[in-house]
Amino acid sequence: MAKLRSLWVDPLSDAHKRRDQLLRERALLDAASQPEAYEQLSSQIKFEEDFIASFTDFKKEAAAKRRGPMSLSAKGILQLLGIAVLWFVVIGIWRRYFG
Fold first, then answer.
1. Could you count the other beta carbons within 10 Å of the beta carbon of residue 57?
2. For an engineered disulfide with 19, which of 13, 48, 51, 53 has Cβ 3.0 to 4.6 Å away?
3. CA quadruple 45, 47, 49, 51: dihedral positive or negative?
4. Contact between residue 41 and residue 29 where contact means Cβ atoms under 8 Å apart
5. Residue-wise burial string across 73-92, b where 16 or more C-beta atoms lie within 10 A, e elsewhere
6. Distance between terminal CA atoms of the chain?
7. For residues 12 and 88, what is the distance between their CA atoms, to the nearest angstrom?
8. Confidence of residue 23 (pLDDT cuts 50, 70, 90)
9. What is the pTM (predicted TM-score) of this model?
10. 55 and 11 Cβ atoms separated by less than 8 Å
């Protein structure tokens, strides 16, 4: 079931939910009476915020790479021209001998 869950749940939304849960837990703690638990929750919250920032940057970089303009090189144009010439030669031979 965990594998299916990962298909429809974004890791970013999971990180937001974990961070919100940790913030609620930290709000219930008193920093003066339980400094170790408060510091541990603060470090976990910082980790989740760092994960959210890095994952967001990763998604932006991936989107920027996908949006790159398409370009044709001279070699590609010559290959397309060569294929077109060969295709017309094949059509001409076919019509001459078989049609």
1. 10
2. 48
3. negative
4. yes
5. eeeeeeeeeeeeeeeeeeee
6. 61
7. 53
8. very high
9. 0.56
10. yes
pLDDT of residue 2: 57
Mean pLDDT for the stretch of residues 74-78: 90
Max Cα-Cα span within the chain: 96
Question: What 3-state class would DSSP assign to 92?
Answer: helix
DSSP assignment string, 17-74:
HHHHHHHHHHHHS-TTT-HHHHHHHHHHHHHHHHHHHHHHHHHHHHHHHHTPPP---H
**What is the separation of C-alpha 93 from the centre of its chain, rounded to a whole number of angstroms?**
49
